[in-house]
Amino acid sequence: MNIESPKVTADKSQQEMFDFLTNAENYEQLMPESKEKFEVRDEKTFVFGLKGMPVIKLQIRETIEPELVVLGSTSDKLDFTLKAHIAALNENQSEVHMEFNGEFNAMMAMMVKKPLSKFINTLAENIGTL
């Protein structure tokens, strides 16, 4: 399953946005209001929980400075990646869009597509308000 957010403009340079997204602590600022849990485990790993969803542990798996940050689930049951693509617009602004890729069976995909789409869009919207 592949879900992409709309592109959003952030008032941070490409490098500033990359630095922001490679710090696990900063993801708390991007979480939806329905966040019930957020905990940083180490500099690359955090755990979060939203109302009505299981707790998910994400880890920064790969980076290509300053244009890509790849987060990945640490669970075998929910194997997915969340990529943040960062493009420079000018020296003070960047454009970001999120891309979710996961392997789910048809039943699971049907159940999670709508809440995941909403979650990915909220992350992107919150990046745009930084």
Q: Let me know the average pLDDT.
A: 94
For the sheet with most strands, the description reads:
8 strands, antiparallel
Regions with pLDDT < 50 over 5+ consecutive residues?
A: none
- Provide the number of structural domains: 1
CATH architecture: 2-Layer Sandwich
Name the assembly state.
single chain
Could you please describe the fold and organization of this structure?
There is one protein chain. With 130 residues, this protein is α+β, with helices and mostly antiparallel strands. The chain has one domain: Alpha-D-Glucose-1,6-Bisphosphate, Chain A, domain 4, CATH 3.30.530. Helix content is 24%, strand content 43%. It is built from two helices and eight strands; from the N terminus they run ββαββββββα. Strands 1, 2, 3, 4, 5, 6, 7 and 8 form an eight-stranded antiparallel beta sheet that branches. The chain is globular and about 45 Å long. The N and C termini lie far apart (28 Å). The mean pLDDT is 94. This is SRPBCC family protein.
Please supply descriptive tags for the structure shown above:
130 residues; alpha+beta; Alpha-D-Glucose-1,6-Bisphosphate, Chain A, domain 4; eight-stranded antiparallel β-sheet; globular; START-like_dom_sf; SRPBCC family protein
Write the layout of secondary structure elements.
Elements: E1 2-4, E2 8-10, H1 14-21, E3 35-42, E4 45-50, E5 56-64, E6 68-73, E7 80-90, E8 93-102, H2 106-128
Antiparallel strand pairs: 1-8, 2-8, 3-4, 4-5, 5-6, 6-7, 7-8
Organism: Salegentibacter holothuriorum
InterPro entries: START-like_dom_sf
Protein name: SRPBCC family protein
